[in-house]
Amino acid sequence: MIEPPPVTRSSLRRVSPIVAPMPVAVLPVRTWSDEQWKRITLGYQARDMDEKWNVFVEDEVVFLHRSWTGNGIYEASFSPVPGEGWRISALVVESDPSRYRRSSDQYDRVMVELVLSGIVLGEPAVELRAELVALTTQESGRTDLPAGVVEHSALGLRSPQ
Fold this sequence. Notes:
Shape: globular
Helix content: 25-40%
Number of helices: 4
Number of strands: 5
């Protein structure tokens, strides 16, 4: 299989940095393997208007931007874990409410891990998806939200590769 060229800041149409970075106190505990990290470093570019995330990596920082606006939402700094792989060592989120309506550190933790696992790596991420739905339901106070609507709203629809 031919490996696609990496997604870079310059390969994206619109890229706007985070203007009001806020540290996220709750980080994913997952360790990504060296092979998974290699795939993450290739990034991900939304293929159509139904996909909501563009991802690119510079050095050991993963940038997660909304595809339509180009606004930076998350920056995840990765560090190697000797003999284990890679782990997020620091995470910041956009806190300007005109650019992103954030809800909680738990939500941000799940969202970053879900974009990387479910979108970039193409994993089913069933547990993360369920956690996203539960957090959204809890934070919105609405119990009538279908899981598919929550996922589409936050993640978009990923086109088959």
